[in-house]
Amino acid sequence: MQINKETVQNINNDAFPSHQRRFNYLADEINNVETIIQKLIAFNIAIPSWALGTGGTRFGRFSGGGEPRSLEEKIEDVGLIHALNRSSNSISLHIPWDIPDNAPSIKALASQLGLHFDAVNSNTFQDQPNQALSYKFGSLHHVDKAVRQQAVEHNIEVIKYGEELGSTALSVWLADGSNFPGQLNFRNAFQTTLESLQQVYAALPDDWKIWIEYKPYEPNFYSTTIGDWGQSYLLANKLGAKASTLVDLGHHLPNTNIEQIVSLLLMEGKLAGFHFNDSKYGDDDLTVGCINPYQLYLIFNELVEGLDARNLNHATGIGWMIDASHNVKDPVEDLLQSVEAIKIAYAQALLVDQDKLKQAQLNNDVARAQEILQHAYRTDVRPLLAEARLRAGGALQPLEVFRSLKVRENLIQERGLKTVTTGL
Length: 424
Ligand code: AOS
Ligand code: ZN
Ligand code: ZN
Ligand code: ZN
Hints:
48% of the residues lie in helices and 9% in strands. With 424 residues, the protein is an alpha/beta fold. The chain is globular, with a radius of gyration of 22 Å. 46% of the residues are buried. D-allose binds at residues 50, 121, 173, 213, 215, 248, 275, 283, 323, 424. Keywords: Cytoplasm, Isomerase, Manganese, Metal-binding, Rhamnose metabolism.
């Protein structure tokens, strides 16, 4: 199924008068409204291929209907999201969950839908059928050199796939760690991880980057070899200029000040980008902004300020991606909600009067500084997002259009009610 522009436009026409009222009212209040809209139009967030199907928990998986059964169908689903929100123009593949064997036709399909390929992800946290050696006790940090070598070669193979598709970054998340005190020597584990990553790094093409994701626990529950931003940053520094730290919002212990981490990584030129999601307890991978939208906004405030300070383009300066898992919702609806939440936080951050904020900080005017941030956060910026989407040819109300066009029902017709997507 594809959604064409005319259909979206026709539905927009009905919603337009009320949109225009709300937009004009808000635009009146903002001096640089045009600049903000242009920035919103330029801002895209990559969709992870593994988020297009229903995830599961260790207790079970309740699959939805009409889920993508192949890489082609995953790309088509991202095409649907992009046709509705005009803010999801790329897909991030996870190999070997996705095997892009026929790169030219995969690329052609993507570009026909206005999409390109974001970072490619390697997978050394599971054993694949026919795999020679097991990752039960880790991959890049394994005590057995042969296992490390197998994991290094897998990462290099992922780079090769990515090159054929036009990706320019390898995203590495390791499950390596330990479950019990004494199980491994921390220093050795770190050192072997570094050596393995150095081999992968050496295989990166000139214009490529390697993004190192950290996570404090799960699947290992005593230690994780790349457990926090310090460990990731240490590796990234030792590896070189092409290596940087990827921040997955769910990969922090409760109440961590993520915005401060983000600010410093950005200052050091070591912020690779994000895996956006939200959580109440840990790596919950819930819809972005559903639990703590204020934190998300504070992160975006640091990003806008920090990217501007380094003269980096907001849209392309770092990597923007969602990492989510849906157990009870339609994955496409969830992703539409997540993209919206990210853009809301971004638009609010663009409203912050940075000059006034700096002045308040210099005067130690704490209440004023706090008011400036809260004022922007308390502004309902949704009409700005809708206006940006409208101008870019998307839907004023993406989720409503998804439902009124009965997209899921159509996908179920096409693909069947009992579909099991590849991946999680
Ligand atoms: C795992 O917790 C990480 O968030 C990774 O990014 C992982 O590759 C992805 O979530 C797919 O499982
Ligand atoms: Zn992640
Ligand atoms: Zn996560
Ligand atoms: Zn995660």
